[in-house]
Design a protein that fits this description.
heterodimer; A: 336 residues; alpha/beta; D-Maltodextrin-Binding Protein, domain 2; 2 domains; four-stranded mixed sheet; 51% helix; 15% strand; B: 543 residues; mainly beta; Porin; 16-stranded antiparallel β-barrel; two-stranded antiparallel sheet; 6 helices; 13% helix
């Protein structure tokens, strides 16, 4: 009996030492797998949420971030990267978590307001100071001799938004003629000298490496570049038409259930919709969805004619199949 | 990039493309504009090429992280995932030994060669022999970066690939350097020389401290880790419990009793410039209590007592009164005037071991010193009579010196120049010397009668061990040399001389199977076992 108690004590010591979380239940970590340009947004947001969560529950939460091309990030999660939450560039990439990994339910998008997109954005142009090539709209981007920087739509969510925005513009100005739209976008990619795998890489190519005349950029990325480089280096050009980008977020159910982090992960995403979360998004140049905050930041965001993917392309699934799957229009025009 | 632009401009100027128009057509702004545009275009092309190279390098790096790596090096052969988180290694240890005895006695106490005739002290010479001392293939690896495993069977020595032929089989979770958990069959964190790999030991055989008294391998769990940047290491474990020098099998335990082991080892001046940087010292202990929990079933190894202490020549010089001492076969039946199961000694009571230890490495010099004391409770027969505690102790001090100037270390020797006849490299040469001894408790050799045994068999005899066949102490000098041809291949040659107290009683031939060795029942005079003088040689490859 004495040996039994000694053995038991020994095992308790081992358990207490190797698994302090379970004993103390005071610390938890989350992994947010996100797309390229959200680094700064989630740095700010994570700090605010950790403070909020500790005040609310007494628990200390540490949020780790992982960033990369949205499609690449989705594949990583499907392949086993244990993301508690995924905050990707487009719904199609989040859908992959259901379709390829059964990590989330099919109706994941209905779980949070605004189709699970707490903030939106769009695509604008970043040009060099003085706009030497006189770029004002999409027509200027496809002109010969204009060097355009945009990432690879096969790996980058932002790049797909860029591509579809250009396509939507071409459709509108060519009487919805798909062939002419294809020709238009083919001209655009003829002007692309290098394809990065993600939006942040494309920004590096344009800003730090000094390549190209125009960067097709997320609005928040363009604002951030301008803020960091100064108005004497780059300018933002707003095209006459662009696309409404709705980056969605989701809890990765299989991971949070395994890691017992569902409560904090769900609270994390819900906090994005709060006044404070929306304020942080707006400060990082994402368009808030909460009316009150959107009003406060009205002047910050230019008014653009924004088309929706569902209206022009019949949703992400169809757009992906037509344009970005192997053998789709992107492959056809870029191979040329 | 600036350099490239300047270079481009210089080339253009140098080639006359710019300089000529500048001098001749300085006012022709159109042409200047064209040239400027040309330079800008070329500049963009260079930048694009640079960026593409950069992206290709990034892609190659990313790909590298995903591509499995095939490894073949002095640390073995294996595969590793591109990110290094998963790995399988194939390693091995082959030790081909030769033993030559100038003087020495074969193991005592076995039945005389040839059959059922009971023998007593088989006073023949120790056998000169070649033998594969260790043949150990090892599969080890890592999963998810922090979880290691190791599996090592033994095909050499006296082992066969059976339950007891598994040397190591454990998993090790490295949560942090400070906190690691090892579970399975492995070396308990106790003896210094035992924790040194068999491939790295300085002598052909380990000393009495390690081979005789401290546990070899046991089955259980240990917390272990390195603190203060490796200046302090600890081990804390719970095990099934194993006899002195014992190697537990992988079968289930025979009782509920568990042994506890703890060790602290400090290298306080580690990583400093001090001459004491290589000084390490520590202390280890084990505790177990098997009071009334061992059996004395004839022929079954359940006594939790050592099956014998051995010399460096691997000849047994001490045995408790176990079934091999008390003569195997029909003699063990409970008949009148016959030693039988009621005379068998087994572990009964508490078992403590304590082992202070130290080593010191300074340049080519290495010194190791270790002491061990074991307090072992024992009793006799199925009635657990004559329960007592026996205290045995052993110690050793050994030194090594690398004549070729390499640094001595706990883990192996890496020659400055590998042995190569063509290039003139001679490997590393090392001289070694050690003194070690073992002293057994006087009470071990008590002459008397067992308590509570029926009168018919209750005759006076040597209760725990017979000094005519088991020595009370042994003292050993070892000198030798090691030749490291390269980090994996080693020749070792040791000369070993051992003297004994007791254990050399005269061989008395029994007159019939019903007559038992006189000295077992008689408190007669005791002779010393003959000195053992032996040459031990080894050729080893270790990966």
């Amino acid at each position: 009996m004495k040996t039994f108690y000694l053995t038991l004590s020994f095992l308790i010591v081992i358990l207490a030492l190797v698994n302090p979380l379970k004993v103390g239940a005071a610390e938890v970590t989350l992994l947010n797998v996100s797309y390229d340009p959200t680094r700064e947004l989630y740095q700010d947001f994570n700090a605010a949420f950790a403070k909020y969560w500790q005040a609310k529950t007494g628990d200390k939460v540490t949020i780790k971030q992982s960033h990369g091309g949205s499609g690449k990030q989705a594949r990583a999660v499907v392949d086993g990267l244990e993301a508690d939450v995924a905050t990707l560039a487009l719904a199609y990439d989040v859908d992959a978590l259901y379709e390829k990994g059964k990590l989330i339910p099919k109706d994941w998008q209905k779980r949070l307001p605004h189709n699970s997109s707490p903030y939106t954005s769009t695509i604008v142009f970043l040009v060099r100071k003085g706009n030497p090539k006189g770029i004002k709209d999409w027509d200027d981007v496809v002109k010969p001799g204009v060097s355009v920087i945009t990432p690879n739509p096969k790996t980058s969510g932002g790049a797909r938004w860029n591509y579809l925005a250009a396509w939507a513009y071409a459709l509108k100005h060519n009487g919805n003629d798909e062939a002419k739209a294809k020709e238009f976008v083919a001209k655009l990619y003829k002007n692309v000298p290098v394809l990065d795998s993600g939006a942040r890489g494309a920004t590096t190519t344009f800003v730090e490496r000094g390549i190209g005349d125009v960067l097709l950029a997320w609005e928040n990325e363009a604002f951030l570049a301008k803020k960091e480089l100064g108005s004497d280096k780059v300018e933002i050009v707003v095209p006459s038409l662009s696309i409404l980008a709705e980056p969605p977020v989701t809890v990765v159910d299989k991971v949070v259930d395994k890691r017992k982090t569902r409560a904090v992960a769900e609270a994390y995403l819900s906090y994005l919709y709060t006044e404070e979360g929306q304020e942080i998004a707006a400060k990082n140049y994402y368009r808030p969805t909460l009316e009150s905050v959107a009003k406060r930041y009205e002047g910050q965001f230019p008014k653009i004619n924004l088309v929706k993917i569902d209206e022009v392309f019949g949703g992400w699934k169809k757009a992906q199949k037509t344009h970005f799957d192997d053998g789709g229009t992107f492959d056809q025009i870029y191979a040329k | 990039m600036q350099f490239k632009q300047s270079l481009l401009a210089s080339l253009l100027i140098g080639s006359g493309i710019i300089s000529a128009p500048l001098s001749v057509l300085a006012n022709d702004s159109t042409e200047l504009e064209q040239l400027r545009a040309l330079v800008q275009e070329l500049d963009q092309k260079v930048r694009v090429l640079d960026r593409k190279n950069e992206l290709a390098a990034e892609a190659a790096d990313a790909k590298k992280k995903e591509t499995p790596i095939l490894k073949a090096s002095e640390k073995g052969f294996g595969f590793q995932s591109g990110d290094g988180k998963f790995e399988i290694k194939l390693r091995g240890l082959i030790q081909a030994d030769a033993r030559y005895f100038d003087s020495g006695t074969n193991i005592a106490t076995q039945a005389a060669p040839g059959g059922s005739t009971p023998g007593y002290l088989n006073n023949s010479d120790a056998f000169n022999t070649w033998l594969p001392r260790r043949l150990r293939p090892t599969i080890e690896g890592t999963v998810f970066e922090k979880y290691d495993f190791r599996f090592t069977p033994e095909f050499g020595g006296n082992s066969v690939l059976s339950d007891s032929g598994i040397v190591d089989a454990y998993v090790d979770a490295r949560f942090t350097p400070e906190l690691q958990l090892r579970v399975g069959k492995f070396k308990p964190y106790v003896g210094l020389e035992r924790l040194q790999s068999a491939a790295d030991i300085k002598f052909v055989e380990r000393s009495y401290v390690t081979n005789a008294l401290l546990p070899n391998r046991d089955i259980g769990a240990s917390l272990h880790g390195n603190l203060l940047g490796g200046k302090l290491s600890y081990g804390l474990g719970i095990f099934n419990g194993v006899a002195d020098g014992g190697d537990n099998t992988t079968s289930s335990d025979i009782n509920n009793a568990k042994d506890f082991a703890a060790r602290l080892f400090a290298i306080p001046f580690k990583d400093s410039d001090s001459p004491l940087a290589g000084l390490g010292f520590g202390i280890a202990a084990t505790y177990g209590d098997v009071t009334g929990k061992t059996q004395d079933t004839v022929g079954a190894s359940v006594t939790e007592l050592t099956s014998g202490y051995k010399t460096e020549g691997q000849q047994t010089f001490f045995r408790y009164n176990d079934s091999s001492v008390l003569i195997s076969g029909p003699a063990l039946s409970q008949s009148a005037n016959a030693p039988g199961t009621d005379w068998l000694v087994h572990a009964d009571g508490k078992r403590y071991r304590i082992a202070p230890q130290a080593n010191y490495y300074y340049g080519p010099l290495g010194v190791t010193a270790e002491y061990a004391r074991v307090s072992q409770g024992v009793s006799i027969g199925s009635l657990n009579s004559n329960q007592t505690t026996l205290n045995h102790e052993a110690w050793e001090i050994g030194a090594s010196y690398l004549m070729t100037g390499e640094d001595a270390a706990f883990k192996g020797v890496k020659p400055k120049r590998d042995f190569d006849i063509n290039s003139g490299g001679w490997g590393a040469w090392e001289l070694v010397a050690r003194y070690s001894e073992i002293n057994l408790d006087d009470k071990t050799f008590t002459f008397g009668t067992t308590n509570g045994v029926n009168a018919a068999t209750n005759v006076a005899h040597w209760l725990y061990a017979d000094p005519h066949i088991s020595s009370k102490s042994a003292q050993t000098w070892t000198i030798g040399a090691n030749w490291y041809l390269n980090p994996e291949v080693k020749f070792a040659l040791n000369y070993v001389q051992t003297t004994f107290d007791g254990g050399g009683g005269p061989y008395v031939s029994p007159t019939s199977t019903s007559t038992y060795p006189i000295s077992l029942k008689t408190n007669g005079s005791v002779f010393d076992r003959p000195d053992e003088r032996a040459l031990l040689a080894r050729f080893q490859i270790a990966l």
